[in-house]
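Handover notes (outgoing to incoming on-call)

Open items:
1. AAA family ATPase: sequence verified, structure written out, both below. Nothing else pending on this one.
2. Nothing else urgent.
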Amino acid sequence: MPEPTPIDRHGPARIIALCNQKGGVGKTTSTINLGAALAELGRRVLLVDFDPQGALSVGLGVQPHQLDRTAYNLLMERGVGVDDVLLKTSVPGMDLLPSNIDLSAAEVQLVGEVAREQTLQRALAPVVEDYDFILIDCQPSLGLLTVNALTAAHGVIIPLECEFFSLRGVALLIDTVDKVRERLNPQLRLDGILATMYDGRTLHGREVFSRVVEAFGDDVFDTVISRTVRFPETTVAGEPITTWASSSSGASAYRHLAREVLARS
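AAA family ATPase structure tokens:
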């Protein structure tokens, strides 16, 4: 991967939704660590926790249940702007829009809103010029919140666990991406499929990965995220692997992914 060129000014942001309707595939881990690796490369990054479970916020050392204002207030309350909700993270150049269980109410409340699919896009519009990347960690479903994320995004990254049953859901997700592109967001494209939780020591892992490449070709990132005990440790520590275990293979993989994302952007 070539060394990314330094930039002399920031924005407008490329907005990327990290999506998979199946849980436990490394979405949140990938959002945090890709964001941190991009920030290391001098990019300004905003992470959006768009999952009512608040795992992204927890993974960055925030206690979501103690927050007065979250993504929910930004979406549903007039007069609340991004700056009212924004939190700094321990990573220089990387900010967080946190979330908690309140966000699950937004899914219901948005149903009656006008232009309900564009609510997140409108909320983020005032800060798009301040960042180089906005990464949205979607909830594991294809509901209205995920459609909001896809409507706001320029690109989609699909983290895909290297297990046979994980492959089945990807076609459904890509179908949803196609529908959003046709009806709501013509600029949306698939940035790539990211193989996660890979274990090259097992035949199963290697077979699944080759099937993924067979099925999706150039849409699969060269970077592969292997299973490691370090990722659960980082969640407890509340910081990215790039700072918690800077010289680990996991940190190196996300740095490689960041360069790939820059090259594809």
